[in-house]
Amino acid sequence: MAVCRFCKYKCDNPDCNLEVSVEIEVSQYFYNKCVNFANDRIGRSADLYSYRGEKRLHKMVEDIIIGTVGEYGVYKYLKKKQIEVCKPDLKIYENKRKSFAADLFNDDIKIHVKSQGVESAKRYGNSWLMQKRDKVINDPSKNEYFAFTNVDGKRVTILGIVKCSDIIKYDLLGECKVPAYRHTKIALYWDTIKERLDSRKRWRL
Q1: For residue 164, what are the contacts with CB-CB under 8 A and spacing of at least 6?
Q2: For the chain (length 205 residues), average pLDDT per consecutive 10?
Q3: pTM here?
Q4: Which of 66, 104, 124, 143 is 20 to 30 A from 111, comparing alpha carbons?
């Protein structure tokens, strides 16, 4: 009988549901890189973000910072677990070259990092948005994962890493709470994930 990574005792209970999260601190150096990237990117991507349902420049910049800090947090977590993946991509692409590719990947796994700021979490609950036409929620491959994070400045809380195929299998998608986003986006709510996935399914990596 192995030592359960969730309850920390010898355990063979497949439904062990002790809530677990991992906190990662991103260095000031990488945080500054995220801020600079957000400010550089937004001038070239504002039209696309507007199309996706957001028109406030300050909110666009904030979202990019939160998303990029979340990627560095997950990257650091994986590195600690000796899982080598590419570093977060800070290149700025033309709108037409943007894609729904994974944020962190190697030859074996593809990880889509979904990040939410703490103020948004207080207002809407732990939840993440994605494009309705994103292939990963319509036809995911077996080696694709979502990493769900909350971001507070340089602190990244990783709530879980879930197989993308489980999102469809267990019917985890929901409607956005913000009406303006509903024409292009769909939501994942952590309460729903916790209710329908046991701890092992919430921590695949």
Answers
A1: 112, 136, 137, 140, 141, 144, 145, 146
A2: 47 56 95 93 62 66 94 97 95 64 96 96 94 92 97 97 97 93 93 93 92
A3: 0.86
A4: 124
Q: What percent of the residues of the chain are helix, what percent strand, and what percent coil, each to the nearest 5?
A: 40, 25, 40
Residue 155 DSSP code: E
Tell me the two tokens of residue 18: 């002790």
Residue 144 — φ and ψ, nearest 5°? Answer: -100, 140
**DSSP secondary structure of 67-113:** HHHHHHHHHHHHHHTT---PPP------GGG-----SEE-SS-EEEE
Phi-psi region at 153: left, alpha or beta (left = phi > 0; alpha = psi -120 to 50): left
Query: In this structure, what are the phi and psi dihedrals at residue 22, rounded to the nearest 5 degrees?
Result: -125, 130
